[in-house]
From TrEMBL:
Pfam families: PAC2. Gene3D superfamilies: PAC-like subunit (3.40.50.10900). InterPro entries: Proteasome_assmbl_chaperone_2 (IPR019151), PSMG2_sf (IPR038389), Rv2714-like (IPR008492). Residues 277-326 are annotated as: Disordered. It comes from Streptomyces hainanensis. This is PAC2 family protein.
Length: 326
């Protein structure tokens, strides 16, 4: 660990993490966390030592000029904090710990243990990991986001899907399992990115992940230019698809399959969720005014004692984007 600043004192903190690489199709997840850092002016307070986790022949450092001085930026994972609301203001005070980095090349168990060490010291109440995978979904429809957990009690309490996936995984799946075995409530939000337009960026998928995060935490997220970027992205893909009759026909078949699978009440649910998000952004809080209902122990700001993750391999909750499965 490279601690750049002293560990901050936080209020009801939630850790939100995303990693570039296998679990980040279209860079959608890492871009979502980067958006939060930018909009909420995140303050970096710590970084993991790059020597411990990265193969520099795979993720190479970058040299850049800083006022004529040559500097090196090493591939790593950084932690920043953003503070929402205030003690006496209309919006209830709460903090987020943002984790953004690159999927490590080695020592994944140690990597997760170090992040969980930060979570324990900071009193993190919940870990939310963002991921994106390739799927058979049309770019013209809302981006599917699946919320999964390996915690049976949490799945029931928050009406989440309990993961049953078995197969290859990335650092997102390993961190999810490490949290579960350490007693830390953890949820993974997976966005499905159309496999026929997988290259980054994908602002529409990033926007969908932020909407899902809003719904999970009950906080309003400032969206900035992201909705307009998402619309421009879709128009661009529309134009590209129209130039290729085979692609256009394929997209049409995906649309028909998606529309057939949708339940009749799905559109009504989507409208209700969008209205709730509007209220949160307008008022800066959830409509009910209760942003902490998901906590295991709402009366305490400190987490319960944690046990360290087991060293054995664990079943991952979700596949990586390379598999195109969910």
């Amino acid at each position: 660990m490279i601690e750049l600043e002293g560990l901050p004192e936080l209020v009801d903190p939630v850790m939100v993490a995303a990693f570039e690489g296998w679990n980040d199709a279209g860079d959608a997840a890492s871009a979502a966390v980067a958006h939060l850092e930018q909009e909420w002016k995140g303050e970096v307070f710590a970084a993991l030592d790059a020597e411990d986790y990265y193969d520099f022949q795979v993720n190479r450092p970058h040299i850049w000029l800083d006022g004529g001085v040559r500097r090196v930026t090493w591939p790593t994972t950084r932690l920043s904090v953003v503070r929402i609301g205030s003690e006496n203001g209309p919006v209830k005070r709460r903090d987020l710990v943002l984790v953004r980095g690159i999927e490590p090349s080695m020592r994944w168990r140690s990597f997760c243990n170090e992040l969980l060490g930060f979570a324990h010291e900071l009193g993190v109440e919940m870990v939310v990991v963002l991921g994106a995978l390739l799927g058979d979904t049309p770019h013209t429809r809302p981006v599917p986001v699946t919320s999964v957990t390996s915690d049976e009690d949490l799945a029931v309490r928050l009406n989440l899907e309990e993961s049953r996936y078995e197969g290859p995984t990335g650092i997102v799946g390993i961190l999810q399992e490490a949290c579960t075995h350490a007693g830390v409530p953890a949820v993974t939000l997976w966005a499905a990115v159309p496999h026929y337009v997988a290259q980054p960026p994908n602002p529409k998928a990033s926007l969908a992940l932020l909407h899902a995060l809003e719904d999970l935490l009950g906080v309003g997220v400032p969206l900035g230019d992201l909705p307009e970027d998402a619309r421009a992205w879709q128009i661009g893909v529309d134009q590209l698809a129209a130039e290729d009759s085979e692609v256009a026909e394929y997209v049409k078949s995906l649309e028909e399959a998606r529309d057939t699978a949708e339940l009749p009440e799905a559109s009504g649910e989507a409208i209700a969720k969008e209205f709730e998000r509007y209220l949160r952004r307008r008022d800066g809080q959830s409509p009910s005014g209760d942003a902490g209902s998901y906590l295991r122990d709402p009366g305490s700001r400190r987490p319960r004692p944690r046990r360290r993750p087991a060293d054995g391999e664990q079943s991952p909750p979700e596949p990586g984007p390379a598999d195109g499965e969910d």
